[in-house]
Amino acid sequence: MIHVLLVDDQAIVRQGLKALLSLEADVQIVGEAAQGREAVAIAQRLVTTPNAVDVVLMDIRMPVMDGVAATRELLRQHPTLKVLILTTFEEDELVQQAVQAGAVGYLLKDTPSEEVAQAIRAVHRGYAQFGPGILPKIVVTTAPLPPPELPPGFAELTPREREVLALIGQGANNREIAQALFLSEGTVKNHVTNILGRLGLRDRTQAALIAAPFLSD
After folding, report:
1. Residue 178 · residue 140 · CB < 8 Å
2. What pTM does this model have?
């Protein structure tokens, strides 16, 4: 069972999401919050219970504490949480801020409910989920950047691990990587674990963000 915390300042939105997600046999809504600070308090209260939060479905613009600040604080206190942004706003800056805060997904509220449910399952399993047109916004910049420095541990990656990292950067999941490189999914999973460990990364989203500058050739 995936335990989900709904965070949105509009009660009607929370009610609608709760009604739709309650139809999913493997998804359980364990809490609702109208703003970020309340979400942090609920997650902290549930952390030692059987209903500890697995995935937070988070709005961006809310009073008291917005979704970016709440994401940052939730992950500071509970690093294994997965935060999936669900909002009406798709400005480049907001997308970038959310990902920098640690969100592993970003969907718009016009996303069909069945796709939201699938995204919840995906982020719970460790995959990043971005709606159509969102991923390019993460790497958009308005000014030239200096050449990136190799992250610590990059030189220790094997040629195969660099191939896996390149495919992660293209948004491929473990099955797709396995098919592309003629490996088993278990082997791919081991490579991903090694990559994250050597580069000191938290998840695949961070790996995807650093892959492009170093593996574009």
Report:
1. no
2. 0.64
